Amino acid sequence: MSWFKRLKDNVQTSTKFKKEAPDGLWQKCKDCGSTNTAKELRENLYICPNCDYHYRIGSHDYFDLLFDGKYEEILSGMRSTDILGFTDLKDYTDRLKSAHKKTDLNDAISIAEGKIHKKRIVIAAMDFSFIGGSMGSVVGEKISRAADRSLKERIPFMIISKSGGARMMEAAFSLMQMAKTSAKLAQLGRAGIPYLSFLTDPTTGGVTASYAMLGDINFAEPKALIGFAGPRVIKETIKRDLPEGFQRSEFLLEKGFLDFIVDRRNLRDKLGEVLSILEVS
Question: What is the value of pTM for the model shown?
């Protein structure tokens, strides 16, 4: 009956010699729990082959996906600084240096100009990997200057939002970006220049309360979390259970906050159609 016992002379692999899969080789889907290789996800534009869950991707991934080959990145040299000297908040300067080293980005948004289906457009894309895609003074300033470029060239402007909200380390300077970017988008509206707002997972806080919801067309990726305060805070405030799927793209589409939802695999062609319809004279 020795097969019921763990005998001392049985061959056992020591825990310290067991090998883990290298980081990034396998990815477990947050939605359905299925496991896919990085190669499979990359070939499927980082969409789960099993349930179509959209993994988060960076700004340059969107640029490569959307533009007709070449594009020009602009305003790339702008970087945030600790303008208020909030060194007690885990040293904001070190946090910025760490984020830059980790992501090779200067801030939480990148701007590029190019063509989609031969239609010129300026795109501002946010990166959640840079301090949670938080909106600081540089994010607001880059959006404002990108809007100026769209206005000058009379070409559409698009923002791809992916953010946890305002950057607390910049306090009022961060909150001021809500008003500044909204004013710039109003200038585009008065000039008849289309502004497209594409909301991805997550789009929350001050970003949702400003430029993310001001598009001539507001649209989103499937199952993206979109809202101002988080579901837990809302539930505790109103003392009621929240509807199923609350603050997800599909819920907001049903309630009229979004014009449509688009799968990442169809995004470029859909934008080509929209730009043809909204072509600036």
Answer: 0.89
